[in-house]
Amino acid sequence: MTLGEPASPKPRSRLGGAIASIALVIVTSASATAQEVRLKAETTPTRPVHTYSIVARDPATGQLGVAVQSHWFSVGSVVPWAEAGVGAVATQSFVDPSYGKNGLDLMRGGTSAPDVLKMLLAKDPSRDVRQVAMIDARGRVAAHTGAKDIPAAGHITGTNFSVQANLMLNETVWPAMAKAFTSAKGDLADRMMAALDAAQVAGGDIRGRQSAALIVVTGKPTGKPWSDRVFDLRIDDSAEPLKELHRLLVLQRAYNHMNAGDLAVENKDNDGALREYSAAAALVPDNLEMVYWHAVALVNMGRVEQSLPLFRRVFRADKNWLTLTPRLAKVGLLPSDQKVLDRILKSME
To answer: Which of 9, 28, 36, 206 sits at a 20 to 30 Å CA gap from 73?
Structure first.
């Protein structure tokens, strides 16, 4: 279903027993004109992850992301898949995780998200109980809601996004997600969170809530996948998974600033480092870890006087940091100057 079309979930009979899924083994070979793909079917067990999710792309930055909530343990371990410069996938309902891996493999080889989804569905005899959405690095998007997904179930695709849901309390959930995402401000993570919040307000999963996850990757791969993940957050079991996801999103933003500050220090950009550290502190002012390492960085910049109020604050809150400080001098993380060290240690007085 595309943005603007009415939602029309399809009724289905009750599912009984276990349903087999198809794990797809992909062998690719390149030619001058096209990529040939052979898919081999293999029977594997399914996991019934009924949920709501969004896959999306930020056209300004190229970032790709997936966000999801469900009344199922550890939804983040099976539903969301994303790779920088390649695409993002959400696979749910009677979930087959191979849609994630194989979908990314095919998109990495140059196949569009709509063509990838058609290809994988064509080889899946259990497609009627699947719900899958994909978006590629060019913003091409596709989604599938199986005819036997448990109502209320449906999806909406729009420019640079797809929202999808099954086993919902009512049929307003995914339209509310689409509206929230397209009208929200902020970066990709903020807008995807707005979609999840809107789904919950509209009624959400008929069974309640348990877990949530959010992944955002950069627009261009660096060759270091661990550096390409801007956000990679999971709430595996919580009475308020979205509330926890919001909290971790703020914390991750703060640590992203801390990491950027450390990089600036390495590059001798002291002013840039202090801007990043200050931004981190503004997000989580009560985080002693960030205050402490900000103070350490100031000392190493030769700004000892500026560091002392920060050290004092940390030492008064937890004396273990006071015990730690001389150890840093022994390994070169603070100057091996006893006068400087004494000033720091006496800052608590």
So the answer is: 9
